[in-house]
Amino acid sequence: FKLRVKDAKIKGHPVQFQFASDVTQETVSQRVNINPKGFPRQASISGKELQKQFTFNVSDVLEGSLEGTLNVYPDLLSELVTGAESIFREPHGCFEQTSSSNYPNIMALRYLNEQRMNDPALKQKALGYLDRGYKRLTGFEVKGGGYDWFGRGPAHETLTAYGLVQFEDLKSVYQGVDQQMIDRTREWLVGRRDGKGGYNQRNNGLDGFRGSSYNVGNAYITYALTTVGENNLEKEVAHITKVALDEKDAYVAALTAIANYNMGKKDKGRACIKVITDKFKEVKDWTKMPVAETVTKSRGNNRFVEAASLFVFAMLMDEENVDEGIISEAIMFLSGNRLNGGFGSTQATILSLKAFVAHSQFFGRTKSAGRLQVYINDKLVKEQAYAAGHRGKISVPVAPHIKMGENNVTVAFMDTDEALPYSADISWTSLTPATDPTCQVDLKTTIANPTAKVGETVRLTANIKNKLGEAAPTPIALIGIPAGLSLQPWQLKEMKEKGVFDYYEIQGNYLVAYFVEMKPGESRDLNFDLKADIPGKYVAPASSAYLYYDKQSKDWESGASIEIVQ
After folding, report:
1. Where do runs of H (alpha helix) occur along 482-529?
2. What is the Cβ-side half-sphere exposure of residue 366, based on CA atoms within 13 angstroms?
3. Splitting the chain (566 residues) into consecutive groups of 10 residues, what average pLDDT does each group show?
4. Fewer CB within a 10 Å sphere, N or C end of the chain?
5. What letter does residue 339 receive in the DSSP assignment?
6. Could you give the dihedral angle defined by the CA atoms of residues 205, 206, 211 and 215, in that order, rounded to the nearest 10 degrees?
7. Helix, strand, or coil here: 554?
8. What sign results for the dihedral spanned by CA atoms 71, 77, 80, 83?
């Protein structure tokens, strides 16, 4: 049976088949997910200014695929749960990828609880995700203590520290956290102290949490241990405090301020905060703040987002010392870095979420009334007044007003001195891949035969290459598999055991291959023998490759095509 999609905007549709004979009949119903053809394209805007104009280009749009809504958030925390249904996601991947799904789930559920939103079905769904996420995370615990990305060992100190903070946050919304696991993990990490005010730090593992400087690692681990209540860290806190005050790095200073506040050392915490505020008053731009590196070796704007997020969280721990002006600047900076529902890398997104939660709890909803105006291509498409304390987002459909070529959107707030945060993702699909030329890895996929008979195997080859003369940390390849063909589990297991890739998952019609690292110029061929199962003509979804900590920069590849015959 061939089915034709009439409306590409429908995401899923029930399809029912009835079978009947002289003696019996059977009915089968299945909801079919509908995905647009081509490659995903997107333009994003976000900010928190009284008036700002954005310009972006839209081209090569496949019919029916253009979507976009501008959302304005009177309550900052509501930005995190714009459609709480879409925030909650099924955890998957390695320890940190699972965390990147699990952490937003924690924040969204905390918001629902704090706002006393009575939605039992949604909360039950969220708790189910958190339960599965927690069990998946604890499955990466290494025998003897600590955590590793894939649970292989030896454990990694800074990744373990990150896990501790997450488990502590999880306790606020999920009752299933094993305190004994937290205690033994904390004890293992305390046992990694080197007696000099720092910790023995292994360099095994992924680029995130790997190879960061001794002082950055020390600051992060101490921050994590004090967050879970460890107070036997006088030497370690004193050491990182001296480093923070001497080096004046904003990221290290923010981590150190939190550690001092956790230890009840308010004066030292304020001294670390002053390092940051003094510098910001001088440069007046978060992207010009001194941030040498983060514990995840973050690239681009991500390291500044992480530093600003930690600063917000740290300053709000000291109610008597809150500078609302600088806090507002930091929140505006974080809002302006929203992209594709996140705020950059995994770490940047998670820390931004925590900063927004802390800010919303401290300041509450918008304090003043105002009037919103939205212009698209110089035409007023929305004007709405709102009252002080307004709850819930204000949504403005954007897609109906977008034209091909250059577009401009102006967001303005009138009759008020306080702008509200806003964001919009305008998305469409195109026959032209939006490959980022700065992406460090290149992906090519080929299928050996354009036709195959049912029962035969067909070789699909995926080549991933590091294009640059430096190591590529944590490459990931999402390889589209044509429907009608199936991967062979024994082969995937064998490839992993031989080190062809370090870890893999199957997500829908994708084989996701993870690599710890690729050497400068290294090229790897992944050969999959796919079994032809169902007759028909098939085109695989578009494949892509990118670095885990730089997922905004992707290389795209057209999906392989094949016809299967009887």
Report:
1. 489-497
2. 27
3. 70 85 92 79 86 93 88 66 48 69 74 66 80 90 89 86 92 91 95 92 53 82 96 96 96 97 96 96 94 84 93 93 88 77 73 82 74 96 87 85 96 91 87 86 94 95 93 89 95 95 90 91 96 93 86 87 94
4. N
5. B
6. -100
7. strand
8. negative
Amino acid residing at 172 = S
Claim: this prediction has a pTM higher than 0.85: no
Half-sphere exposure of 403 (CA within 13 A, CB side): 10
Distance CA 220, CA 255 (A): 6
Q: Quote the pLDDT of residue 77.
A: 56
Q: What is the CA radius of gyration of the chain?
A: 25
* E-only strand ranges, 365-484: 370-376, 379-386, 394-397, 405-414, 422-430, 441-447, 451-453, 457-466, 472-473, 475-480
Q: Give dist(CA 41, CA 341) in Å, integer.
A: 14
For residue 436, give the nearest of 467, 460, 480, 405 by alpha carbon: 467
Q: What's the rounded Cα separation, in Å, for the pair 160 and 149?
A: 10
In sequence order, the β-bridge partners of residue 14 are: 31
How many Å apart are CA 39 and CA 397, to the nearest integer? Answer: 23
Which amino acid does the sequence have at 120?
P
Distance (Å) of CA 329 to CA 54, 277, 322: 19, 11, 13
Residues 6+ apart with CB under 8 A from 118: none
Could you say which DSSP state residue 202 is in? -
Integer Cα distance of 444 and 442 in angstroms:
7
CA-closest candidate to residue 438, choices 548, 279, 552, 314: 552
Residue 537 CB contacts under 8 Å (≥ 6 apart), including other chains: 561, 562, 563, 564
At how many degrees (to 10) do helices 95-114 and 157-170 cross? 20
Residue 156: strand, helix, or coil: coil
The Cα–Cα gap between 68 and 57 comes to 14
Other CB atoms within 10 Å distance of the CB of residue 187 = 11
Token pair of 362, please? 């401290």
CB 426 within 8 A of CB 377: no
Give yes or no for a contact between 286 and 308, defined as CB atoms under 8 angstroms apart: yes
> Helix (H, G, I), strand (E, B), or coil: what is residue 378?
coil
Structure tokens at 388: 């002080």
